[in-house]
Design brief:
3-stranded antiparallel beta sheet; 4-stranded antiparallel beta sheet; mainly beta; 109 residues; 0% helix
C-alpha cells in the first residue's frame, strides 16, 4: 500500500504503525503481531526509516517507522510505499486472516 504524509506547520514529524489484530476468519484465532512484517520499498521523502532494506516486525503498540528529513518539513507530500511479509507459526491454521494496521502521523513539538 501507499501512504501520503505532509506537514502543514513546517515542523519535523514522524509516522508510527502497529498491528491491532490479525485473526483467522473461521475460528477467530489470532496470530502474533510480529508474524506480519513491513518494509518501505519506495519513498519520495528525505527522512529515515529502519525498514528500508530489511523487513521489520509489527508490534501491538505503535512503533516509529519513519522520521521526516529536512526537505520533508517544507509542506510537500511524502509518499511511502510498503511491502508486507507474513510468516505464521507452523501450528497456524490454513485459511483467511484479517488484520488491521493503524498508521499515526504526528509533528514533533
Amino acid at each position: 500500500n501507499e501512504i501520503r504524509c505532509r506537514s502543514n506547520a513546517g515542523r519535523p514529524w514522524y509516522l508510527k504503525a502497529h498491528l491491532v489484530t490479525l485473526k483467522h476468519t473461521g475460528t477467530n484465532r489470532a496470530l502474533p503481531a510480529s508474524t506480519l512484517r513491513w518494509k518501505i520499498v519506495g519513498s519520495t521523502g528525505s527522512g529515515s526509516s529502519t525498514g528500508r532494506t530489511d523487513f521489520q516486525p509489527f508490534a501491538e503498540q505503535p512503533d516509529t517507522i519513519y522520521e521526516s528529513g529536512r526537505d520533508d518539513h517544507r509542506g510537500r507530500s511524502v509518499v511511502l510505499q510498503f511491502q508486507y511479509s507474513l510468516t505464521p507459526p507452523p501450528s497456524s491454521l490454513a485459511g483467511t486472516y484479517v488484520g488491521q494496521i493503524v498508521f499515526t502521523m504526528a509533528e514533533h513539538p
